Amino acid sequence: VTFENMKVLPQQGAEQQQQQQQRVFISQVVTEKEFLRRSDQLQQVVQSQGFINYCQKKIDGSQTEFEKNVWAFLKVNFEDDSRGKYLELLGYRKEDLGKKIALALNKVDGSDVCIKEEKQESEFLPLAGGTFNISVSGDIDGLITQALLTGNFESAVDLCLHDNRMADAIILAIAGGQELLARTQKKYFAKSQSKITRLITAVVMKNWREIVESCDLQNWREALAAVLTYANADEFSALCDLLGTRLENE
Fold first, then answer.
1. Inter-axis angle of helices 197-204 and 178-191, nearest 10
2. How confident is the model at residue 208 (pLDDT cuts 50, 70, 90)?
3. Degrees (nearest 5) of the Cα angle 212, 216, 220?
4. Which residues, 6 or more positions from 183, have their beta carbon under 8 angstroms from its beta carbon?
5. Other C-beta atoms within 10 Å of 37: how many?
6. 226: pLDDT strictly greater than 70
7. What domains sit in the chain, N to C, each tagged with a CATH number?
8. Residues 83-100: pLDDT tens digits?
9. CA neighbours within 13 Å on the CB side: how many for 78?
10. pLDDT for 21
11. What letter would DSSP give residue 24?
12. H or E stretch covering 79
């Protein structure tokens, strides 16, 4: 019930003023009891900080897989090590990955591995206390040797890259300092072309925005996993927003 006072013009008569003094409005408000019940329940959860139990109940009562996943992600937000658990929800369990790697490494028979390792050690490693030749010839090896003997790591790295000896180049760049290593990494990635080169480049250069901006949206889970694993707290939200915007606009 609502009451309203009417404004009356001065020239109107007293009798007319009394007739138009007030109005009464009666309206019906429909209340959804279920909505109020759920609202009260949520307020109790907020006051008691019982978010994890509340989300778990929602997960248990979910009717669809989508609804279940939504509440599962919300629940993780209130748990310890939330990033690690987000990765698990995306399908990246560290334990499972460890088993896959161990399985791949153990595909070769153990005895064969031992034989091969012993053979490699005897072929390539110098004997303890033995002598070795320091070549200073005009070939690539000799030039690299001369560069190393004079402390010219940059030239040694350039020679290794020119000869496509990427591993040697990276190892020498590490010894030459962070600045040389960064330049060598860029040169390496410029020359290297593989299916995962861009991902490796982004991880090494810490360019997480490149992953989020340039990945195929079919791989949004993988992009989110990379952000969860590597991104700093101050850039995490912005990267997630960027990925979400790309998905919305698709």
1. 170
2. very high
3. 60
4. 173
5. 10
6. yes
7. 48-93 (no CATH), 136-249 (1.25.40.980)
8. 888 888 888 887 887 777
9. 14
10. 58
11. E
12. none
